[in-house]
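Pasting as-is:
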Amino acid sequence: MGLGSTAKKLQTVAERAEKVYKRLNKLRDEVEETQNTVKSIESEVAGLEDELKEQRAVLYAIAEQQGIDADAVAAETHITEAEAKAQAAEETEAAEEMTAPESDTA
């Protein structure tokens, strides 16, 4: 094998290595950007959770003043939502069964 052939192969390897290096740097930047976004979102969520706790405390205080059992209202809401989800799941399942092709067993 001549020196020209070896030089060409080394050049090809160097070019591929450079492309990989560029891709790796781009990926590193994207990962860093994603991490920064996640940190920012975590901070926003923590703030929203704190605000929600404050609002819940105010609502419970108002409910107590009005003689309303806020826990019972919340429980009833959860039950209603669960029943609605179950009903929707049953309807979806029934619709899928109606549109499913019949299989030949003959």
